Amino acid sequence: xxxxxxxxxxxxxxxxxxxxxLKQAGYQLDQKVELTVTQGRIVIEPLQSVRYELxxxxxxxxRANRHDSVDFGPAVGREQF
Length: 81
Known about the structure:
Layout: E1 6-9, E2 12-15, H1 19-25, E3 33-38, E4 41-46, H2 54-59
Antiparallel strand pairs: 1-2, 3-4
């Protein structure tokens, strides 16, 4: 167990998390998390990665939001089309 102190950061309260706590929990810097309050406790959980399905993405295409093709010139390496 480690102690920490809630302090002011700008107009918001802030809690600094020791690197050892992040490492032990498997979190990384700049990782998005979700905060919830449960029975008077603040719970920090990683956000689940969003998984996209190709069919759903393609269903959102229309003539109005589709761009023209782009010609990048002839192949210059080992590209295969």
